[in-house]
Structures are given as structure tokens and as C-alpha cells.
Amino acid sequence: MPIDYLSILIFILVIVGFSIGTVVISSFLGKKRPTYFKCMPYECGIDPVKDAQTKFEPKFYLVCLVFLLFDIELVFLYPFALISDNLGLVGLIEIIIFIFILFIGYLFAWKLNIFNWIKGRSSASH
Amino acid sequence: MILTIILIFIKIVIVFSVVMGLVAYIPYVERKLIGDMQRRIGPSVVGPFGIFQPIADGLKLLFKEEVIPLKADKLLFVLSPVIVVCAALLGICVIPWGDYFLVDCLGKPIISLGYIANINVSLLFIIAVSSLGVYGIVFSGWSSNSKYSLLGGIRATSQLISYEITGSVVILTVALSAKSLSLVEIVNYQKSSVWLIIPQIIGFIIFLICGFAETNRIPFDLPEAESELVSGYHTEYSSMKFAMFYMGEYAHILVFSCLIVVVFLGGWLPPFNIFPFNLIPGTLWFGLKVSIFVLLFIWVRATLPRVRFDQLMNLNWKILLPVAFANFLISAILVIAF
Fold first, then answer.
1. Who's near B90: CB < 8 A, 6+ residues apart?
2. Over the stretch B31-57, which tens digit does the pLDDT of each residue have?
3. Exposure winner among A117, B14, B214, B222, fewest CB in 10 A?
4. Tens-digit pLDDT profile for residues A80-109
5. Interval B59-76 mean pLDDT
6. A53 touches chain B (CB under 8 A)
């Protein structure tokens, strides 16, 4: 087993070295003739309007929150999947209760229209 | 010990070269095949049948000027293609492609020639590492300071994390059936019973759809939808850094194809363990199955149109995720009952 982790470490070193090396080499090989207009962010050929690092749709944050919920749920489910034979029926019932509780949270998120991306067609407006 | 490390290093360098060769030639095969499907010729100028096209492209991009936008966050801007490539390639090191060992004169195995590393959490490792690629995409979208990049970046992020959950639920169901997270153990389990595609056909279909979404391929290539976002999160990139995003994408396709073959299609096992099939070496079967999936990716790109973003999110959150969880619960009940 230690030899496997050692292999992974060597592999990481090889690919990190490769990718950083590629970036560095290409930055030395390519000519550099920056002009003001060349270094402007692309915006259909006109001068950029305002800064780009600005506010965006809050729905993306909500999706991230729901992602966290489900990801942590999955972390709890992996041990169950591996030892489900030893746990037997009790473990199964506990896992069903666990998923049921999270299912209520999922329905709540659905009710909040997190999964609805078209504003006019949300179920709240009906 | 030193000898073992040197052998491991040689093995890794060989595997890495083969993988990079494949990553360079999948785009060539893609352009050629899509050309045929659209009744064009495709690349045909550089070398016979345009066979040296990837090398020419790589060299051209290597010598191109590197443009960094004025207001960009320089460190993150340079770092993100590195993260994307590393995260995509790292999955390779736990993929098994055969069961061969290099033995010393006493018949004791020194190192395996069938995989780089066989750890008992391979599946979790692949999930963890491939989702690290999200950081590269977020950084590239944010640091470019361009509106198209930002929109592409956040779209890609929400798409990737959404489909990652569904994919992980399917992996969970597989772990439940095989009682292991090690890919070698999963293949051995399939050797003793049937290929997991047969009991887990629903999981297989869901996982395939998740694969298309996680590699940002058509029909789910919303992050780089040309008609609305120019090129998505890599709009501002040029030179080799631009090529590295493509490298990352094709490496991701390769790793995903390998993963789905190992998990659902029995890895290096022949379809039937009878006379004409088991003469062909296992690695050849593995390569055959992987190339089928890579060709499927290309075929789908030539066939399907792009979906809308709300359709993409609906498909995952309202259809695939509940179905994947139902699949998990039913499998759990069946596994414990029988």
C-alpha cells in the first residue's frame, strides 16, 4: 500500500512538472508585443462597459448550498454502502430515515424554486 | 527499494506518454470523423491523411504570443490551466488496465504492470480529483475579468457540481454492489459475477449522461456555448494556455471512458470467458471498450444539438437525481434482502 501512494506522489510530480513546464516554455517562446487594445477584455469589439468582476445571479449561490447538502449526505452514505452487510436490516431502516429527512429538504429547495431557471414560469407565479 | 522507485518512475513516464499521445490524437480522430459525418474531408494537409495535424497544431500554439488581459488577476490567470490539466490527468493513476505483474527471479511480484496505484479508495480519489477541476474553471472565469468568461465560469461551476452529485450517487450504488471502492476489486467482483451494467443498467445510463455534462461536451457544452458566450471561461486565453484547456477536456473524456469501462463493463475482462474471446489479451479488450466510449462522445457531438441551461438544470435536479437515489435505495434493499 505505501508503494501505491508513492506512485501517486510521483505521478503528481510528473504531471505538475509537465503542465507548469509547458506554460513556462510557451511564455518564453512566444513573442511579446502587447498593445493597449490587444490586452483589453473581449467584448464584441467595443470598449468594455464596467468591470466584469461584479454581481451575478444569486441562484448560483443557492445551487452551491444545495450541492453542499447533498455532498455531505453522500459522505455519510459511503461507509454504509461498504458495510451494509454487517448492518443488516437496522442499518437499512436507518439509512431510509436519513434519506427521507434529506428528501424533505430537497422538496423544500424545489418549493423555493431553486431548480427553476426561468423566472416567468416559476410555480410560485401560477 | 531504489530499484523499485526507478521502475515505478519508468512505468509512470511510459503511461504518461501514452496518455498524452492519446490526448493529442483524440481531437484528430474527432475532426476526421466529424468531417466524414458532415461529408467534408477534415484535416488532410499535414502528412498522409493529415496524421501530423496535432503535432503541427501543438507547435503552432507553443510559439504563439501570450496575451494577458490588462485587468486580469495574473497569478490565477496563469494558474488555472495548470489546475485544469492536472485535475483531469490525475484520475489516470488509479485506473487499472490489466492484471500483470513484473516478477523477480523468485516469482515474487515487484511492481504491477496493470495499474499505477491500487488504493482502497480509488473511486473516491477519482471523484475528488476530477472535481478539483472546478477550481481551475472558477479561477479562469473570475480572473480573466471579462464578462463572457465570468458567465461561462459560473455556468460551468453550477453544471459540474450539480452533475457531480448524481454521478457520485451512481458510484455509491456500484460500491454497494461490489462492497469495495478499489477499482481492481470491482473488476474482480465482476469477474466472479456479471458485469455491473446488467444489474445497474439505470445507473449506467445516468452515469453516462453525467459524463457528458462533466466533460462539458455537446449536448451539455453550455459553458462554452459559442453562439452566446463566445468561448466561455477560456475566452481570454491564448497560446499554450488555451491549448491546455482543450488538453484538460480530452484528458477528462479519456479518464471518464476508462472509469465507466472499469466500473460497468468489466475493465480488462473479455465479454465471455470462453475459447475465442479469452485468447485476446485483457489490455486489448480494455482499449477496445475505451475507444468505443470515446467514439460515442464524438458521435454524439456530431448528432445532437445543445440544450438550454434551464433544461440542463431541470434534467439533473428534477429527473436524474431522484431516479439515482431511488436506484440506490432499491439496490440497498435488494442487496440486504438477498
1. A11, A12, A15, B129, B130, B132
2. 999 999 989 888 888 888 888 888 888
3. B14
4. 888 888 887 888 888 889 989 888 988 888
5. 84
6. yes
How many angstroms away from the CA of B182 is the closest CA of chain A?
11
Cβ–Cβ under 8 Å, residues B136 and B248: yes
The whole-chain average pLDDT of chain B stands at 86
Contact B327, B203 (CB under 8 A): yes
Looking at the complex, does the CB of residue B166 fall below 8 Å from at least one CB of chain A?
no
- Residues ≥6 apart with Cβ < 8 Å to B206: B166, B167, B170, B320, B323, B324, B327
CA pseudo-torsion sign B36, B38, B41, B43: negative
Q: pLDDT band for B73, please (50, 70, 90 cuts).
A: confident
Q: B77 to chain A: which residues are within 8 Å by CB?
A: none
- Cβ atoms B215, B253 nearer than 8 A: yes
Chain B positions in Cβ-Cβ contact with residue A39 (cut-off 8 Å): 67-70
Cβ-Cβ contacts under 8 Å for B237 (sequence gap 6 or more): B81, B140, B144, B245
Task: Give the integer Cα–Cα distance in Å for A105 and A95.
Answer: 16
How many other CB atoms sit within 10 Å of the CB of residue B59? Answer: 12
